[in-house]
Amino acid sequence: MSGPRDRDDAADLEGAALDALSDVERARLRASLADDADAGREFDRLRGAAASLAAVLPGLREPGGAGTRARLLARAAADGQARKARSLTPTVSSPVPPPPSPRMPLPAVWFGAAAVGLAAALLLLVQSRAELRDARTAFAETERARRRAADSLEALVAEQDRRLAALTGSRVRVVDLTTQEAGKPYARMFWDQATNRWTFVAHRLPALTPGRTYQLWLVSGGRRISAGTFGPDARGEAVVRAEVALAPGALAAVAVTQEPAGGVPQPTGAMVVAGKATP
Predict the structure, then answer these.
(1) Architecture of domain 172-276
(2) So what's the pLDDT on residue 136?
(3) Could you state, in order of their start, the residue ranges of all structural domains in the chain?
């Protein structure tokens, strides 16, 4: 263990290195260094450290002898007290930052993005197929409607052709029906002898009272054959179509009577219009 003398010698070495000894102390230190090689090496080490300190702390080696030493010792004591105070002061730990959130490995990110893209592509494909199916259904329905319209139009044209033929054909026989009173009803019967189709067109027929109807008759060889019952529209007009087979030249006359609703087997009412068939 080092004694008080050793501590004093060490302090003298430090003070000499800093040029902080008095003349008496320096003389005593030089005598000691001459006899102790280890002390001389320590002195050289301290002198080198002091030179380094002087480079960064201007004024450290200012002349002043014991006063400079006293300032150094006071500074060292103050530093020691500060270190002691810091050791006794509770340390306030800084908040620990939360651990970084785990990051998905890059391949996993690529896989997730690819999965989302694939799902979007599949959804688009499903929607496209559904839209295509709806479009095909709508097109098919439109095509069916177009065909129905075309068929209806063809049927209408065919019917009009038949009606026109029934009125204007080479084998159509026409019978005019009138009354004796001027400005009263009149009608015309078209008989297509090739097809036995009859087309009756009337004008200015009086309105019927409830429970009454008009009935069309074909007179042939003393027989009266009913060709149907009908009622006029608001303008007093009517069209009746019938199919009754008669031998050419067998028609004698055409007449219309007013009968009870539903018609009768043989005429009972007054004659409204009538016309004789010419050979």
Answers:
(1) Sandwich (2.60)
(2) 86
(3) 4-88, 116-164, 172-276
